[in-house]
Amino acid sequence: MSDVLHSDIVDNSAMPWKATDVMKEKVNFVLEWEKRWNEAEGGQVEMAELCRKYGVSRAAGYRWVNRFREAGHKLTALEEKSRRPHSNPNAISAEIEDWIVQARKQMPRRGPRKLRAILVDRHPDIDWPSTTSIGNLLKRRGLCRVRKTRKHAPPLTQPFAATLEPNDTWCIDFKGKFRLQDGNWCHVLTLMDADTRFLLRAEAMLDPTGDNVEKVLDSAFQEFGLPKAIRSDNGPPFASTGAGRLTRLSVWWLKLGIQLERIEPGKPQQNGRLERCHLTLEEAVTPSAENLVEQRRVIDEWRRDYNEDRPHEALGDVPPALVYRRSSRGYPRKLLKPDPPAWREACDVDRYGCIRWHRRKLFVTSALAGEIIELDRIGETTWEIRFLDLIIAELDDRKIAQGIVMKRKPQSAEV
Known about the structure:
Layout: H1 3-8, H2 22-39, H3 47-54, H4 58-70, H5 94-106, H6 112-122, H7 131-140, E1 169-179, E2 185-193, E3 199-205, H8 210-224, E4 229-232, H9 248-255, E5 259-262, H10 272-284, H11 292-308, E6 345-348, E7 354-357, E8 360-363, E9 372-377, E10 382-387, E11 390-396, E12 406-412
Parallel strand pairs: 1-4, 4-5
Antiparallel strand pairs: 1-2, 2-3, 6-9, 7-8, 9-10, 10-11, 11-12
Protein backbone atom coordinates (compact mmCIF):
# COMPACT_ATOMS: atom_id res chain seq x y z
CA MET A 1 0.00 0.00 0.00
CA SER A 2 1.41 3.41 -0.92
CA ASP A 3 2.85 5.87 1.56
CA VAL A 4 0.04 8.31 0.73
CA LEU A 5 -2.63 5.85 1.72
CA HIS A 6 -0.77 4.85 4.89
CA SER A 7 -0.60 8.48 5.99
CA ASP A 8 -4.35 8.87 5.45
CA ILE A 9 -5.46 5.80 7.39
CA VAL A 10 -7.22 6.61 10.65
CA ASP A 11 -6.98 3.24 12.38
CA ASN A 12 -5.25 0.27 10.81
CA SER A 13 -6.90 -2.18 13.17
CA ALA A 14 -10.37 -0.93 12.19
CA MET A 15 -9.73 -0.96 8.45
CA PRO A 16 -12.07 -3.55 6.86
CA TRP A 17 -9.97 -3.97 3.68
CA LYS A 18 -8.26 -7.24 3.03
CA ALA A 19 -5.06 -7.42 1.03
CA THR A 20 -6.08 -5.72 -2.19
CA ASP A 21 -5.04 -3.18 -4.79
CA VAL A 22 -4.93 0.44 -3.57
CA MET A 23 -6.23 1.85 -6.84
CA LYS A 24 -9.14 -0.59 -6.77
CA GLU A 25 -10.19 0.58 -3.31
CA LYS A 26 -9.99 4.23 -4.38
CA VAL A 27 -12.27 3.42 -7.30
CA ASN A 28 -14.72 1.63 -5.01
CA PHE A 29 -14.70 4.63 -2.66
CA VAL A 30 -15.53 7.26 -5.31
CA LEU A 31 -18.07 5.02 -7.05
CA GLU A 32 -19.92 4.54 -3.78
CA TRP A 33 -19.73 8.28 -3.16
CA GLU A 34 -21.15 8.86 -6.67
CA LYS A 35 -23.95 6.38 -5.99
CA ARG A 36 -24.89 8.12 -2.74
CA TRP A 37 -24.63 11.52 -4.40
CA ASN A 38 -27.01 10.44 -7.16
CA GLU A 39 -29.42 8.97 -4.61
CA ALA A 40 -29.35 12.28 -2.74
CA GLU A 41 -29.98 14.02 -6.09
CA GLY A 42 -27.04 16.31 -5.63
CA GLY A 43 -27.67 16.74 -1.95
CA GLN A 44 -25.32 16.22 0.94
CA VAL A 45 -23.39 12.93 1.25
CA GLU A 46 -22.36 11.70 4.71
CA MET A 47 -18.58 11.77 4.10
CA ALA A 48 -17.61 11.00 7.70
CA GLU A 49 -19.51 7.71 7.68
CA LEU A 50 -18.18 6.78 4.22
CA CYS A 51 -14.58 7.47 5.25
CA ARG A 52 -14.98 5.41 8.42
CA LYS A 53 -16.26 2.52 6.32
CA TYR A 54 -13.14 2.58 4.15
CA GLY A 55 -10.77 3.41 7.02
CA VAL A 56 -9.35 6.62 5.56
CA SER A 57 -9.25 10.20 6.78
CA ARG A 58 -11.86 12.69 5.61
CA ALA A 59 -9.10 14.81 4.07
CA ALA A 60 -8.13 11.90 1.82
CA GLY A 61 -11.76 11.18 1.00
CA TYR A 62 -12.49 14.78 -0.01
CA ARG A 63 -9.25 14.92 -2.03
CA TRP A 64 -10.18 11.83 -4.06
CA VAL A 65 -13.73 13.06 -4.63
CA ASN A 66 -12.55 16.50 -5.74
CA ARG A 67 -10.09 14.97 -8.21
CA PHE A 68 -12.83 12.70 -9.51
CA ARG A 69 -15.28 15.58 -10.03
CA GLU A 70 -12.72 17.99 -11.53
CA ALA A 71 -11.75 15.35 -14.10
CA GLY A 72 -15.37 14.96 -15.22
CA HIS A 73 -15.92 11.76 -13.23
CA LYS A 74 -12.96 10.02 -14.88
CA LEU A 75 -11.40 7.28 -12.77
CA THR A 76 -7.91 7.98 -14.16
CA ALA A 77 -7.82 11.06 -11.93
CA LEU A 78 -7.33 8.76 -8.94
CA GLU A 79 -3.94 7.51 -10.10
CA GLU A 80 -0.97 8.45 -7.93
CA LYS A 81 0.76 11.64 -9.03
CA SER A 82 4.51 12.15 -9.01
CA ARG A 83 5.84 14.02 -5.99
CA ARG A 84 8.84 15.21 -7.90
CA PRO A 85 9.07 19.03 -7.81
CA HIS A 86 8.50 20.86 -11.08
CA SER A 87 11.84 22.62 -10.71
CA ASN A 88 15.03 22.20 -8.69
CA PRO A 89 17.19 25.27 -8.10
CA ASN A 90 20.13 23.02 -7.13
CA ALA A 91 20.01 20.91 -10.29
CA ILE A 92 23.19 20.67 -12.37
CA SER A 93 22.95 22.73 -15.52
CA ALA A 94 23.25 21.01 -18.88
CA GLU A 95 26.50 22.86 -19.60
CA ILE A 96 28.13 21.73 -16.34
CA GLU A 97 26.92 18.17 -16.94
CA ASP A 98 28.57 18.18 -20.36
CA TRP A 99 31.84 19.43 -18.85
CA ILE A 100 31.83 16.70 -16.21
CA VAL A 101 31.01 13.96 -18.73
CA GLN A 102 33.73 15.19 -21.08
CA ALA A 103 36.28 15.24 -18.24
CA ARG A 104 35.30 11.70 -17.24
CA LYS A 105 35.77 10.44 -20.80
CA GLN A 106 39.20 12.08 -20.93
CA MET A 107 40.14 10.63 -17.52
CA PRO A 108 38.21 7.34 -17.25
CA ARG A 109 40.20 6.16 -14.21
CA ARG A 110 39.28 9.17 -12.08
CA GLY A 111 36.46 8.70 -9.59
CA PRO A 112 33.97 11.46 -8.63
CA ARG A 113 36.09 12.82 -5.77
CA LYS A 114 39.31 13.09 -7.74
CA LEU A 115 37.46 14.29 -10.83
CA ARG A 116 35.95 17.15 -8.83
CA ALA A 117 39.34 18.07 -7.32
CA ILE A 118 40.86 18.31 -10.81
CA LEU A 119 37.97 20.41 -12.16
CA VAL A 120 38.12 22.77 -9.18
CA ASP A 121 41.86 23.19 -9.68
CA ARG A 122 41.50 23.90 -13.41
CA HIS A 123 38.39 26.09 -13.18
CA PRO A 124 38.22 27.61 -9.67
CA ASP A 125 35.74 30.28 -10.81
CA ILE A 126 32.99 27.69 -11.42
CA ASP A 127 30.73 26.46 -8.61
CA TRP A 128 31.12 22.72 -9.18
CA PRO A 129 28.57 20.21 -7.81
CA SER A 130 29.34 18.04 -4.80
CA THR A 131 31.15 14.73 -5.11
CA THR A 132 27.89 12.85 -4.53
CA SER A 133 26.10 14.78 -7.29
CA ILE A 134 28.94 14.10 -9.72
CA GLY A 135 28.83 10.40 -8.79
CA ASN A 136 25.06 10.27 -9.38
CA LEU A 137 25.50 11.99 -12.74
CA LEU A 138 28.14 9.50 -13.85
CA LYS A 139 25.87 6.61 -12.82
CA ARG A 140 22.95 8.04 -14.81
CA ARG A 141 25.17 8.41 -17.86
CA GLY A 142 26.52 4.87 -17.52
CA LEU A 143 30.07 6.11 -16.90
CA CYS A 144 30.55 4.58 -13.46
CA ARG A 145 31.59 1.01 -12.77
CA VAL A 146 29.91 -0.29 -9.63
CA ARG A 147 32.33 -2.25 -7.46
CA LYS A 148 31.38 -5.06 -5.15
CA THR A 149 31.23 -4.10 -1.50
CA ARG A 150 34.22 -5.52 0.34
CA LYS A 151 34.69 -6.13 4.02
CA HIS A 152 37.60 -4.09 5.33
CA ALA A 153 39.62 -4.97 8.39
CA PRO A 154 40.48 -2.06 10.70
CA PRO A 155 43.90 -0.52 9.96
CA LEU A 156 46.79 -1.81 12.03
CA THR A 157 50.04 0.15 12.25
CA GLN A 158 51.64 -1.18 15.42
CA PRO A 159 54.38 -1.88 16.20
CA PHE A 160 55.49 0.29 13.29
CA ALA A 161 56.79 3.77 14.03
CA ALA A 162 54.63 6.68 12.91
CA THR A 163 55.56 8.31 9.61
CA LEU A 164 55.92 12.02 10.27
CA GLU A 165 57.76 13.19 7.17
CA PRO A 166 58.89 11.98 3.75
CA ASN A 167 61.36 9.08 3.72
CA ASP A 168 60.58 7.95 7.27
CA THR A 169 59.28 4.68 5.80
CA TRP A 170 59.20 3.24 2.31
CA CYS A 171 56.76 0.45 1.49
CA ILE A 172 57.76 -2.28 -0.96
CA ASP A 173 55.79 -5.14 -2.47
CA PHE A 174 55.03 -7.05 -5.66
CA LYS A 175 51.68 -6.65 -7.34
CA GLY A 176 50.05 -9.97 -8.18
CA LYS A 177 51.56 -11.44 -11.32
CA PHE A 178 49.71 -11.37 -14.64
CA ARG A 179 50.38 -12.84 -18.06
CA LEU A 180 51.57 -10.71 -20.97
CA GLN A 181 50.20 -11.28 -24.45
CA ASP A 182 53.44 -13.04 -25.44
CA GLY A 183 52.78 -15.66 -22.73
CA ASN A 184 55.35 -14.51 -20.13
CA TRP A 185 54.38 -13.82 -16.53
CA CYS A 186 54.92 -10.21 -15.45
CA HIS A 187 55.69 -9.11 -11.87
CA VAL A 188 55.50 -5.40 -10.96
CA LEU A 189 57.66 -4.21 -8.06
CA THR A 190 56.20 -1.14 -6.37
CA LEU A 191 58.08 1.15 -3.98
CA MET A 192 56.21 3.97 -2.23
CA ASP A 193 56.96 6.64 0.34
CA ALA A 194 54.50 6.00 3.18
CA ASP A 195 54.11 9.63 4.23
CA THR A 196 53.46 11.30 0.86
CA ARG A 197 52.25 8.28 -1.19
CA PHE A 198 54.86 9.23 -3.79
CA LEU A 199 55.48 6.19 -5.99
CA LEU A 200 59.25 5.94 -6.17
CA ARG A 201 59.32 2.93 -8.47
CA ALA A 202 56.89 0.73 -10.39
CA GLU A 203 59.11 -1.69 -12.26
CA ALA A 204 57.86 -4.59 -14.38
CA MET A 205 60.10 -7.67 -14.49
CA LEU A 206 59.89 -11.30 -15.55
CA ASP A 207 61.90 -12.76 -12.66
CA PRO A 208 61.24 -11.34 -9.14
CA THR A 209 64.63 -12.30 -7.68
CA GLY A 210 66.59 -10.53 -4.98
CA ASP A 211 69.23 -9.43 -7.50
CA ASN A 212 66.64 -7.79 -9.75
CA VAL A 213 65.00 -6.07 -6.79
CA GLU A 214 68.40 -4.83 -5.59
CA LYS A 215 69.06 -3.23 -8.99
CA VAL A 216 65.75 -1.36 -8.81
CA LEU A 217 66.44 -0.23 -5.25
CA ASP A 218 69.98 0.84 -6.10
CA SER A 219 68.55 3.10 -8.79
CA ALA A 220 65.91 4.49 -6.40
CA PHE A 221 68.49 5.12 -3.65
CA GLN A 222 70.68 7.07 -6.07
CA GLU A 223 67.74 9.21 -7.20
CA PHE A 224 65.95 9.78 -3.89
CA GLY A 225 68.44 8.91 -1.13
CA LEU A 226 67.86 6.42 1.70
CA PRO A 227 64.78 5.95 3.91
CA LYS A 228 64.91 5.34 7.64
CA ALA A 229 62.92 2.09 7.32
CA ILE A 230 61.51 -0.23 4.66
CA ARG A 231 58.22 -2.06 5.24
CA SER A 232 57.57 -5.34 3.43
CA ASP A 233 55.69 -8.60 3.72
CA ASN A 234 57.29 -11.89 4.79
CA GLY A 235 57.76 -13.38 1.34
CA PRO A 236 60.88 -13.67 -0.80
CA PRO A 237 63.03 -11.86 -1.69
CA PHE A 238 62.27 -9.52 1.25
CA ALA A 239 62.19 -12.18 3.99
CA SER A 240 62.82 -15.87 4.53
CA THR A 241 62.04 -18.59 7.05
CA GLY A 242 65.62 -18.63 8.36
CA ALA A 243 67.10 -16.99 11.45
CA GLY A 244 65.91 -13.41 11.73
CA ARG A 245 63.90 -14.01 8.53
CA LEU A 246 66.88 -12.48 6.78
CA THR A 247 67.69 -12.59 3.07
CA ARG A 248 70.69 -11.21 1.22
CA LEU A 249 68.49 -8.25 0.26
CA SER A 250 67.42 -7.42 3.82
CA VAL A 251 71.01 -7.83 5.07
CA TRP A 252 72.03 -5.20 2.51
CA TRP A 253 69.34 -2.87 3.90
CA LEU A 254 70.64 -3.35 7.45
CA LYS A 255 74.20 -2.57 6.36
CA LEU A 256 72.90 0.65 4.79
CA GLY A 257 71.42 1.63 8.15
CA ILE A 258 67.82 0.98 7.10
CA GLN A 259 65.48 -0.50 9.71
CA LEU A 260 63.37 -3.52 8.78
CA GLU A 261 59.59 -3.42 9.21
CA ARG A 262 57.63 -6.54 8.35
CA ILE A 263 53.88 -6.88 8.39
CA GLU A 264 52.25 -9.80 10.18
CA PRO A 265 51.49 -12.87 8.04
CA GLY A 266 48.02 -12.62 6.52
CA LYS A 267 47.71 -8.90 7.35
CA PRO A 268 48.15 -7.06 4.02
CA GLN A 269 46.23 -4.09 5.47
CA GLN A 270 49.37 -3.24 7.45
CA ASN A 271 50.85 -2.27 4.09
CA GLY A 272 47.54 -0.78 2.99
CA ARG A 273 49.00 2.15 1.05
CA LEU A 274 50.52 -0.19 -1.51
CA GLU A 275 47.49 -2.48 -1.53
CA ARG A 276 45.31 0.50 -2.50
CA CYS A 277 47.87 1.57 -5.09
CA HIS A 278 47.75 -1.91 -6.62
CA LEU A 279 43.99 -1.56 -7.19
CA THR A 280 44.67 1.52 -9.30
CA LEU A 281 47.58 -0.19 -11.05
CA GLU A 282 45.32 -3.13 -11.94
CA GLU A 283 43.28 -0.84 -14.18
CA ALA A 284 46.42 0.33 -16.00
CA VAL A 285 47.64 -3.19 -16.82
CA THR A 286 44.25 -4.51 -17.93
CA PRO A 287 44.46 -5.62 -20.66
CA SER A 288 48.14 -6.46 -20.55
CA ALA A 289 50.65 -5.30 -23.16
CA GLU A 290 52.22 -7.31 -25.96
CA ASN A 291 55.59 -7.77 -24.22
CA LEU A 292 57.70 -6.55 -21.29
CA VAL A 293 59.04 -3.48 -23.11
CA GLU A 294 55.55 -2.27 -24.01
CA GLN A 295 54.28 -3.03 -20.50
CA ARG A 296 57.07 -0.99 -18.94
CA ARG A 297 56.16 1.94 -21.19
CA VAL A 298 52.51 1.75 -20.07
CA ILE A 299 53.46 1.51 -16.37
CA ASP A 300 55.94 4.40 -16.62
CA GLU A 301 53.22 6.67 -18.02
CA TRP A 302 50.78 5.47 -15.36
CA ARG A 303 53.35 6.20 -12.62
CA ARG A 304 53.92 9.72 -13.96
CA ASP A 305 50.18 10.35 -13.89
CA TYR A 306 49.87 8.83 -10.39
CA ASN A 307 52.60 11.09 -8.97
CA GLU A 308 52.05 14.34 -10.86
CA ASP A 309 48.37 14.56 -11.87
CA ARG A 310 46.23 12.28 -9.71
CA PRO A 311 45.03 14.10 -6.54
CA HIS A 312 45.24 12.16 -3.27
CA GLU A 313 42.66 12.58 -0.51
CA ALA A 314 45.15 12.01 2.33
CA LEU A 315 47.24 14.90 0.97
CA GLY A 316 44.37 17.38 0.69
CA ASP A 317 43.56 16.42 -2.91
CA VAL A 318 46.98 17.35 -4.30
CA PRO A 319 49.33 15.04 -6.24
CA PRO A 320 52.13 13.33 -4.26
CA ALA A 321 54.84 15.03 -6.32
CA LEU A 322 53.93 18.39 -4.77
CA VAL A 323 54.69 17.26 -1.21
CA TYR A 324 57.49 14.71 -1.59
CA ARG A 325 61.12 15.76 -1.16
CA ARG A 326 64.39 13.89 -1.52
CA SER A 327 65.95 12.20 1.52
CA SER A 328 68.82 13.92 3.29
CA ARG A 329 70.50 10.52 3.80
CA GLY A 330 72.75 10.23 0.78
CA TYR A 331 73.68 7.18 -1.27
CA PRO A 332 76.05 5.50 -1.95
CA ARG A 333 77.42 5.36 1.56
CA LYS A 334 79.81 3.22 3.56
CA LEU A 335 78.23 -0.05 4.67
CA LEU A 336 77.91 -0.66 8.39
CA LYS A 337 79.98 -3.42 9.97
CA PRO A 338 79.50 -5.11 13.35
CA ASP A 339 81.79 -3.72 16.05
CA PRO A 340 81.20 -6.01 19.03
CA PRO A 341 82.12 -4.79 22.52
CA ALA A 342 84.60 -6.76 24.62
CA TRP A 343 81.93 -8.68 26.56
CA ARG A 344 80.47 -10.24 23.42
CA GLU A 345 81.79 -13.07 21.32
CA ALA A 346 82.27 -12.50 17.59
CA CYS A 347 81.99 -15.26 14.98
CA ASP A 348 82.61 -15.29 11.25
CA VAL A 349 79.85 -16.79 9.11
CA ASP A 350 81.24 -19.00 6.36
CA ARG A 351 79.94 -19.15 2.80
CA TYR A 352 77.44 -21.84 3.79
CA GLY A 353 75.90 -19.75 6.59
CA CYS A 354 77.60 -21.64 9.44
CA ILE A 355 79.70 -20.58 12.44
CA ARG A 356 82.26 -22.43 14.57
CA TRP A 357 81.22 -22.67 18.20
CA HIS A 358 82.90 -24.88 20.80
CA ARG A 359 84.63 -26.80 17.99
CA ARG A 360 81.29 -27.52 16.34
CA LYS A 361 79.82 -26.25 13.10
CA LEU A 362 76.40 -24.64 13.58
CA PHE A 363 74.15 -23.40 10.80
CA VAL A 364 72.68 -19.91 11.33
CA THR A 365 71.51 -18.55 7.96
CA SER A 366 72.99 -18.42 4.48
CA ALA A 367 71.84 -14.78 4.20
CA LEU A 368 74.74 -13.79 6.48
CA ALA A 369 77.44 -15.67 4.56
CA GLY A 370 80.70 -13.74 4.83
CA GLU A 371 79.41 -11.50 7.64
CA ILE A 372 80.28 -11.22 11.34
CA ILE A 373 77.72 -12.00 14.03
CA GLU A 374 77.83 -11.36 17.77
CA LEU A 375 76.88 -13.67 20.63
CA ASP A 376 75.70 -12.08 23.87
CA ARG A 377 75.30 -14.27 26.98
CA ILE A 378 71.79 -14.03 28.46
CA GLY A 379 71.89 -17.09 30.72
CA GLU A 380 74.19 -19.73 32.11
CA THR A 381 74.06 -21.74 28.87
CA THR A 382 72.11 -19.48 26.48
CA TRP A 383 73.26 -16.79 24.09
CA GLU A 384 71.58 -14.20 21.87
CA ILE A 385 72.80 -14.10 18.29
CA ARG A 386 72.90 -10.57 16.88
CA PHE A 387 73.66 -8.92 13.60
CA LEU A 388 74.17 -5.18 13.95
CA ASP A 389 71.14 -4.00 16.00
CA LEU A 390 68.96 -7.04 15.25
CA ILE A 391 68.54 -10.07 17.51
CA ILE A 392 68.07 -12.95 15.08
CA ALA A 393 68.20 -16.15 17.18
CA GLU A 394 69.17 -17.84 20.43
CA LEU A 395 71.80 -20.49 21.04
CA ASP A 396 71.71 -23.07 23.83
CA ASP A 397 75.05 -24.72 24.67
CA ARG A 398 73.18 -27.80 25.88
CA LYS A 399 71.85 -28.42 22.37
CA ILE A 400 74.89 -27.72 20.25
CA ALA A 401 75.59 -31.45 20.03
CA GLN A 402 72.56 -31.63 17.73
CA GLY A 403 73.75 -28.56 15.79
CA ILE A 404 70.60 -26.65 16.74
CA VAL A 405 70.28 -22.89 16.67
CA MET A 406 66.97 -21.77 18.15
CA LYS A 407 65.34 -19.44 15.65
CA ARG A 408 63.10 -16.71 16.87
CA LYS A 409 61.25 -13.66 15.61
CA PRO A 410 63.74 -10.83 14.97
CA GLN A 411 63.63 -7.78 17.18
CA SER A 412 65.62 -4.60 17.57
CA ALA A 413 68.20 -4.42 20.33
CA GLU A 414 70.47 -1.84 21.88
CA VAL A 415 73.97 -2.33 20.57
